[in-house]
């Protein structure tokens, strides 16, 4: 049996879910971002308690099929951008469609209807968040980041970064250096 959980986007969330399942005596096979596969069916009481306990932690157990599909789409995108070593070289639409087994137009229409933004906008927002992380780690230069994140050029990355954040990548990086300098003076 599979359970789908909204807002489950980090390793910390996975640990939290594992702990809640353990408290209820529910044996799991897989705890992944947005999804848990359990060995046995759970009782309505276990379901209700799990739902309440997850809500206390900011997570939501999903029951609605559309919500589940939206979370699956988001999960594929988050996994692809934040937890994969390399962004796929195929179109995002092909990748998402193939991964979930649905026509991309169908997925796109549902996503836009429910979330109020397109899948492409959601991808861009997450790519920029990932670029911010990479800039702060200071291990890669902007050219390497642009290549890693599958941008056609550094200029394309810089323009998109500025459009989303209001800052240039170099200015954003300099803010980190100013913060570190300020902390050292405290």
Give a written overview of the molecule.
There is one protein chain. By secondary structure, the chain is α+β, with helices and mostly antiparallel strands. It folds into two domains: 1-63, Alpha-Beta Plaits, CATH 3.30.70.100; 66-186, Arc Repressor Mutant, subunit A (Orthogonal Bundle). It is 64% helix and 9% strand. The protein has nine helices and four strands. It has helices spanning 11-23, 44-56, 65-82, 92-100, 104-115, 119-137, 142-148, 154-165, 169-184, and strands spanning 2-6, 28-32, 35-38, 60-62. A four-stranded antiparallel beta sheet has the order 2-3-1-4, sandwiched between helices. It is globular, with a radius of gyration of 19 Å. The mean pLDDT is 87.
The residue ranges in which pLDDT falls below 50 over 5 or more consecutive positions are none
Morphology? globular
Quaternary structure annotation: single chain
Strand content: 5-15%
Short description:
The protein has 186 residues and is α+β, with helices and mostly antiparallel strands. It contains nine helices and four strands, in the order βαββαβααααααα. 64% of the residues lie in helices and 9% in strands.
Question: Topology of this protein?
Answer:
Elements: E1 2-6, H1 11-23, E2 28-32, E3 35-38, H2 44-56, E4 60-62, H3 65-82, H4 92-100, H5 104-115, H6 119-137, H7 142-148, H8 154-165, H9 169-184
Antiparallel strand pairs: 1-3, 1-4, 2-3
Helix pairs in contact: 3-5, 3-6, 6-8
